[in-house]
Specification:
Blueprint lengths: L1 H12 L18 E3 L16 E3 L19 H7 L9 E5 L4 H12 L3 E6 L32 E5 L5 H8 L6 E4 L5 H4 L3 H15 L4 E5 L13 H7 L4 H15 L7 E7 L2 E2 L8 E3 L6 E2 H13 L8 E6 L7 H4 L9 H9 L6
Parallel strand pairs: 3-4, 3-6, 4-5, 6-7, 7-8, 8-12, 9-11
Antiparallel strand pairs: 1-2, 10-12
C-alpha cells in the first residue's frame, strides 16, 4: 500500500506540468454486483433490484486490485460477446452535473473507463458517498484523473467542436452519454442543440455509434405523459427550455444523428439518492425517479449489445409517484431562473 501512496505523491507533485487530459493511478478497481431482473406493469422494460457491493480482501501490495464482476443478466449478456478483459470507454458530456456525475461513478463501478468534458474541472466531484470506492460526496478524492487511471478529464465547452473532439481523441470511445444542462443566462438558450450537434459530428468522425441522450418528460410526443403542473410550465416559463429540448431530440429523430444507435430517455421528476434498482419504461404519466437509476439506464443503453430501446425515445420512472417539486429540482429546469426556484423550494404542496 505504501508504494501506491508514493505514486500518488509523485503524481501530485507533477500536477502543474500535466496536460488538461490526464490519467493517473487509482488504489483499486471497485467490484460491483448486480442482481435481479423483473418486469413492471404494464409497460416496464425492466427493473433493477439493488446494487450489491461484493467485498474482497486486497493484499498489502499495491498491485492487488479487485477485478470487476457482474451478475446482472444484461451486463453478463454484453460481456459474453467481448473478450474477458475487454473494457469500454464511455464519453460523458455534462459530467459535472448531478446526473452526469452519477453516470461517471457507475461506469467506474462497472469497471469501465470514462472520458469527461467539464466547463470547470473542480466541479467534477462524487455525487454521493461510496465506501467500496472510497468516495465522499462533493469531494474529488478518487474521482479525478490524478487518483484514478480510469478517468480522463477535458476542460472546455461543448459549444467548441475542438473541445468535443478532445474527449474522443486517443481514448477509444465506445459509447456516449449526453447529460447536458445549465442556466440559460450562463450557457445560452440553444446549448442542447448546438452542443449535441458537435457531439454527433464527433461520433461520426471517430466511428462511435452508440449514444444515449437525457431529455425530459414532455418533450417531443410525450406531452400527455407529463404531470399537469409541468404542462403549465412548459407552455409558459419553460417554453425556451422545451424548445431547446425538442430541437436536441430532432437531431436524432429526423436529423444527422438518425443513423446512430441512439436512445433518447425522458425521465419524470429527478430525485437525489442511491439507486433503488427500479426503472420502468412507461406509456402513462411519468413519475419521479432517482438520478442514480436514470444513470444506470443510460449506461445499459450504451453498453448492452441487445438493448431493447435503440432508435427510440422513451419515458422512464420509478415507483416514487409523481409531482411538481422533483421536476423543479432538476438542474436543467433551474434554467428558468433562481427567482422562480426559491419559492418552490420552500413549498411542497405535492408531498415529495
Amino acid at each position: 500500500a505504501s508504494a501506491w501512496y508514493r505514486r500518488v505523491g509523485l503524481a501530485s507533485s507533477r500536477a502543474a506540468s500535466v496536460s488538461r487530459r490526464t490519467r493517473c493511478r487509482t488504489p483499486y478497481t471497485p467490484r460491483a454486483s448486480w442482481s435481479g431482473l423483473g418486469r413492471g406493469q404494464p409497460h416496464s422494460a425492466w427493473s433493477r433490484r439493488g446494487y450489491e457491493a461484493a467485498g474482497g480482501a486486497a493484499s498489502a501490495s499495491a498491485a492487488a486490485f479487485l477485478v470487476p464482476h457482474a451478475t446482472h443478466p444484461l451486463a453478463l449478456a454484453g460481456r459474453s460477446r467481448r473478450a474477458a478483459d475487454a473494457v469500454s470507454t464511455i464519453a460523458v458530456f455534462g459530467a459535472s452535473g448531478r446526473t452526469g456525475s452519477e453516470v461517471v461513478l457507475q461506469a467506474l463501478e462497472r469497471g469501465e473507463e470514462v472520458s469527461c468534458l467539464v466547463r470547470d474541472r473542480i466541479r467534477l466531484t462524487a455525487p454521493r458517498d461510496h465506501a467500496e470506492m472510497d468516495l465522499r460526496k462533493g469531494s474529488m478524492h478518487n474521482f479525478s484523473p490524478y487518483m484514478n487511471d480510469k478517468m480522463v478529464r477535458t476542460e472546455g465547452s461543448v459549444l467548441n467542436r475542438a473541445d468535443v473532439d478532445d474527449v474522443f481523441d486517443g481514448n477509444n470511445i465506445t459509447g456516449v452519454v449526453v447529460a447536458l444542462g445549465g442556466k440559460t443566462r450562463e450557457v445560452g438558450p440553444t446549448l442542447l442543440f448546438d452542443g449535441t450537434t458537435h457531439i454527433i459530428a464527433a461520433c461520426k468522425a471517430h466511428g462511435v455509434k452508440r449514444i444515449c441522450v437525457v431529455s425530459t418528460v414532455g418533450a417531443g410526443d410525450s406531452m400527455d405523459q407529463a404531470p399537469w403542473t409541468f404542462k403549465l410550465l412548459m407552455k409558459t416559463m419553460m417554453q425556451k427550455i422545451m424548445d431547446d429540448k425538442n430541437a436536441q431530440e430532432g437531431l436524432f429523430l429526423d436529423g444527422p444523428g438518425a443513423d446512430l444507435e441512439f436512445c433518447i430517455v425522458r425521465p419524470g421528476g429527478l430525485k437525489q439518492g442511491a439507486p433503488t434498482g427500479i426503472v420502468n419504461v412507461i406509456d402513462g404519466e411519468a413519475g419521479a425517479i432517482n438520478r442514480a437509476d436514470l444513470a444506470a439506464f443510460c449506461l445499459d443503453a450504451v453498453l448492452d449489445p441487445d438493448f431493447a430501446h435503440l432508435q427510440q425515445a422513451v419515458c422512464i420512472s420509478s415507483d416514487m409517484g409523481s409531482g411538481f417539486k422533483s421536476l423543479m429540482s432538476d438542474k436543467t429546469m433551474s434554467r428558468m431562473g433562481s427567482e422562480l426556484a426559491r419559492p418552490l423550494e420552500d413549498a411542497n404542496p405535492f408531498g415529495f
